[in-house]
């Protein structure tokens, strides 16, 4: 089996990262088609990355024989239908985070892929981030003793695209958009134990003019085995992206700062092209990052899935993991809504995660 | 009015810091007497710091005319009775944190000092920590815009003295012992708005063989004016003391790390005398701190109170502040016990803060 | 003996720091008079710091009985004459760095103070900088083994006052202005061994339109006992002040960064009052420093000298130390001029340190 | 043209890095053979990395048709003869640093490859280190204005293999072993201007019992265009590897710390497998690095050369660059020997770089 063909569904922020990563870092894959709503933008995307075909209807991409993998980089509310269509077409699926809008969709996605005998990977890149992977091996080596607290945090000043502010399309605010990273990071770091309960506090502190969604959220998750996870997320943090983790054990700790930590410390009176994701300016002091996609683990993640498909292996991150994360997120919104710790497993008919919190605020 | 006489009640860890600070940094005060339970230890303390008198009964120190200030550095459960005795003797009081064991005691202390027309200062040194004072002026200058999130955290591997492990004497675990710092830091930074509610999660993760108290605790406090505080405390963090704060506003952020931040970065194959509070070793890499008392703000705090007494001014931190902190702590233990957000003001007959949580665990 | 009276000669940048330090941190001293060339500025200075007298002629201040200490904060070329006048008036002298303009002046200053039986302190504050003092004790404890390399560096974008650019008044560029700090730091850290030789490279890289002096200079000094010092100095470094040291031994190292190290890490969209010495802006990311004078050791230095005078003790830093530094500086300029390692002791008739380098460039 | 065959000459420290990088990161190359002196070690190396053939005589590897590239990872004194043999066999050559033992060898290597019409790449990985590549683009974007000072430093506690201590085999001490990195880094960063002069100071401070070579060295290089480079190198720095760069311009600066900067900050009471190159221990605090080869740029460097060979392009780093570095190194040893600035171009008949310095010390 030579190179595997990929159909890239979506041509926004994360699709660009994926396209660039396949080209530079994943020799076993080749993007055969890209799909977008907007004709001009999609064509330009295809040209820019040397992708031979582009479509505005993803079914056409999924119909291609050359395509073995559907890479779902669409807005959240389209994840489920695209995954179902891909499975129906016999394509393996790698789906961007969050897995989908609700637990019913998640169940359908998992079932459909199982039935079609295609792989479903949940694209949590933090499990492939080189610095965090090193932290994981520290834990696995026993360097920290018994781990009892895992913290992960992502903060910046607001999402890449306008549709995120509209919670009916995104399904929630920052706890959904970025909390999903933290929850899966914590689960992975602890060895994916059962989550027992969730506490969550959130609010709209800075962007109340733009969104009903939460723009700063904190969640605490208790796990089997006497361990705790904490997720801190913000769309209200000025000064550019922050991505950090801390792991506490009975015999050690490790602190990892992906961005300020790794950056060059730069002062420029005149400014320059690019410092880091969402940095508002490049004049004065900045923390200049480099090879961002590699440092986040995107190419490693995509290469892993391509390898899984080629060699018939189960991905590190599955649809079930994506579902477990979504369950925690839904419980977190419920907790923020009613001011109580929510026990897991959590059943809910909420159509979107933020639903109970929006109701409670009215 | 020349130098003010001070009676130091207690001769443990924090009393040493105070004694050293008065001598080196507070020319307007002179320690006239020290009081301790253990005769030999108290005498040695007096000799070491050149204090002219020592007693095992604090009433004798309070009876001295030369003494104008009683500095209460006793175990938590003695704060109230010592303060009441000092007030009765007409002495001004500076009382170490936490203010006392329960809200009833707090009310009595405040009332007694008012009636005796003596000042009562709540000794929260973080409000005098030079680095944090600079953060406060950043906030006051408007550098960060509207502040919506204040985080403060203290973590190490367990308390200075054995009696802390016994919750009947200490009144609680790390949320009481160190959470009090965070809560007053947050209140001060936000301009002391009303606290509206508390969420708290805690557990005994590492020291279950030594204590029934919580050794790792997280609390979230919502305040009037759409602001949030977060306190993270641990007695379960190996590798020496951590003391950090983060302040998030609509137009800026500031991060302050008192210890790793300020330290010399040292490698020693052979080791040396002292790196930082509670560091387990000085071989290998260490973060060497210097002038710890000054960097925490102890001399500034004591000088401030001496100045308040000399010049008839209200201290920055009062008994009412200490009571407000204690109320949040008691609500935090209640929240951890029942898994709910607790609204403030909070009334409780609990004798010690940890009471509801201990009951809930049984 | 109560408070000692001080006459502050000069009312520029460093005089302000001294005045503020005496007032806030040195209860044993009181500034009785300030002297400046400019009447309005001097009067305003006196008012601002509550100094009872001000003069435009320093002899009048030196004539006061209340004055026991002359604190020389004048431009470099006036250090010698002011010190001689103070000694003649029977006043103890603390003289700002560099000690003076040439070795002959240095010899006269030392001799005059000896004859008048007054103390002469060389005001090298880095020997009192708390973080560096801690590094010194690490060395003295043996934590680093045998020390073989000491580095110290100060860098910013140019001096406080215009007269520094004019080398005939300042006597040299950045190697004189800031190299003196490094050389004495290194001597002190190594236990003041004999300097054996100096290598120096310098140039005018950024400010050639303003000065003939060197604006970026590197010097390497070899010492008895197989140890090396390195001084890196710059007036050409954008982005605000840098002050760092590194100490390397056979069994350990320690790194100390006074400013970026200790600072709060702040982002502000709107800016604020002051970040750090010579920071060009406070918008965007800045490294916010606090209690600068204390962190540099100015109050500790002044208190030390007041204590020496009160108690008849030799200061840590003497006129001889200042002379030793000046000798290294003069050898450094000679080395840069002729491209050779210069052996010490070094004799020269140069009137100002930069003389040989200026000649060589013509 | 499919995958290019590589013969790996050498099976020591850097050969391992190369073998691992080809396998993980360079899909266009395949290692066809490995060569080592020791039969058992070489066979084990081949097995470990899945290399189909191994030899103890490199001529046999160079005779293979499948081999297009000779990757010279041999001790320094064998670089020239292996390169000449490879060129004679019509193989492209990538040669580890330093290029060779003297300038005459360098000339022969360059001429031989030219005549044989094969590419000769000088393997300076710092020019491919992602963090440093980002610094280079900052410079090229003009973010720092006119660059006038470039510093680069590598320090640890001594070389990988015993033969380095024997200067007759290695050709020199740390100025040769690690200074070569700094000199090429500086040349590259400045756009490879002509070097005008070199100053160098060195000594044997810690390892005098093991070597006659320099174990701590500082060199200053002046370049055309009013710019300066500084190289600081040490085999005498305890605590594990340091790799740092600083770039100063008229309008900006950037600081890059490859190791402490990027690392996880870890405390472990029990220790763990590996922290960073040459770290003496993993207990206590350590700076845990990850994906070291990638972060140094090894795979990028190898991929670049494979791409150059495939597509007929000149490598970024050529034999001429390696020669220019060697010339600076030889001038640096001469400078340290006679205590003078040495002008470039520099002619010398020295057989090995350290020759003049060894003579001068006798």
Describe it for me?
Four copies of one chain form a homotetramer. Chain A is an alpha/beta fold. Helix content of chain A is 36%, strand content 25%. Chain A is built from 13 helices and 15 strands. Chain A has helices at residues 13-25, 39-49, 58-62, 79-88, 103-116, 130-141, 167-170, 174-177, 179-189, 292-296, 298-311, 319-338, 355-361, and strands at residues 4-9, 29-35, 53-55, 67-72, 92-96, 120-123, 147-155, 195-203, 216-223, 227-234, 242-249, 252-257, 264-268, 284-288, 342-343. In chain A, the strands form three sheets. A seven-stranded mixed sheet of chain A has the order 12-11-7-10-9-8-15. Chain A has a six-stranded parallel sheet with strand order 3-2-1-4-5-6, sandwiched between helices. A two-stranded antiparallel ribbon of chain A has the order 13-14. In chain A, a hairpin with a 2-residue loop joins strand 11 (242-249) and strand 12 (252-257). In chain A, helix 5 packs antiparallel against helix 12 (319-338) and helix 12 (319-338) runs parallel beside helix 13. The longest helix of chain A has 20 residues, at 319-338. Chain A starts with a strand and ends with a helix. In chain A, 62% of the residues are buried. The model of chain A has no long low-confidence stretch (mean pLDDT 97). At the B-C interface, helix 6, strand 12 and strand 13 of B face helix 6, strand 12 and strand 13 of C.
């Amino acid at each position: 089996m030579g190179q595997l063909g990929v159909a890239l569904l979506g041509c926004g922020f994360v699709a660009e990262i994926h396209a660039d990563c396949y080209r530079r870092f994943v020799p076993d894959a080749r993007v055969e088609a890209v799909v977008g709503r907007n004709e001009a933008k999609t064509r330009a995307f295809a040209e820019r990355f040397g992708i031979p075909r582009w479509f505005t209807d993803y079914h056409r991409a999924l119909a291609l024989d050359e395509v073995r993998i559907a890479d779902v980089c669409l807005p959240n509310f389209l994840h489920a239908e695209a995954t179902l269509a891909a499975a129906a077409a016999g394509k393996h699926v790698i789906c961007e985070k969050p897995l989908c809008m609700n637990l019913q969709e998640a169940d359908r996605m998992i079932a459909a892929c199982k039935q079609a005998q295609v792989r479903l990977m949940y694209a949590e890149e933090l499990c492939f981030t080189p610095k965090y992977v090193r932290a994981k091996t520290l834990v696995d080596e026993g360097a920290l003793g018994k781990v009892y607290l895992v913290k992960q945090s992502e903060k910046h000043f607001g999402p890449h695209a306008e549709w995120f502010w509209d919670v009916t399309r995104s399904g929630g605010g920052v706890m959904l958009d970025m909390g999903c990273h933290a929850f899966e990071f914590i689960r992975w770091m602890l060895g994916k134990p059962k989550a027992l309960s969730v506490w969550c506090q959130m609010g709209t502190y800075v962007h109340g003019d733009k969104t009903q969604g939460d723009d700063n959220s904190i969640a605490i998750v208790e796990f089997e085995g006497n361990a705790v996870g904490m997720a801190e997320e913000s769309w209200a943090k000025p000064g550019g992206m922050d991505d950090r983790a801390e792991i506490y054990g009975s015999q050690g700790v490790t602190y990892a700062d992906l961005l300020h930590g790794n950056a060059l410390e730069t002062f420029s009176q005149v400014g320059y092209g690019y410092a880091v994701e969402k940095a508002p300016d490049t004049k004065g002091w900045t923390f200049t990052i480099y090879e961002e996609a590699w440092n986040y683990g995107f190419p490693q993640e995509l290469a892993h899935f391509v390898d899984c498909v080629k060699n018939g292996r189960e991905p590190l991150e599955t649809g079930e993991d994506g579902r477990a994360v979504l369950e925690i997120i839904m419980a977190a919104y419920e907790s923020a809504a009613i001011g109580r710790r929510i026990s897991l497993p959590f059943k809910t008919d909420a159509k979107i995660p933020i639903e109970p919190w929006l109701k409670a605020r009215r």
